[in-house]
Amino acid sequence: MSRLSTHVLDTAHGCPAAGMTLRLLDINHAPLFTGVTDADGRCPGLPTLGPGRYALSFAVADYFREHGVDLPDPPFLGVVTIDFGIADDGGHYHVPLLVSPFSYSTYRGS
Fold it and tell me: Quick count: other Cβ atoms within 10 Å of Cβ 24?
């Protein structure tokens, strides 16, 4: 089993994205976990995972609207979904998200 973590940074405001809802999904996009980022933009309680394909789905538009950003309708980014794989190595998988209302970036962190 591998540990999973995430860290969401709001690049529009230069701070952690506290209060963003996210979901962990299986290969068929069925929900495995739902959580909300804490004050540091991290989500405690993500489960350990076996090898396979997964996705993290982040409610980006809801987050920015809740933080007073006037978004168009529909927003450019509503939900950002990152599909990723876990190999059979029992390691740690860190999936960060750097996001603004109009762009995002991710990578495999440590």
Answer: 20
pLDDT at residue 58, as a whole number: 98
Residue 25 pLDDT: 98
d(CA 21, CA 108): 20
Q: Which residue matches tokens 């529009």?
A: 12
Shortest CA distance to 20 belongs to which of 2, 50, 40, 45?
40
Identify residue 20 by its one-letter amino acid code: M
Share of the chain above pLDDT 70, in %: 100
Task: Supply 45's token pair.
Answer: 């309680």
Q: Residue 27 pairs with which residues in a beta bridge?
A: none
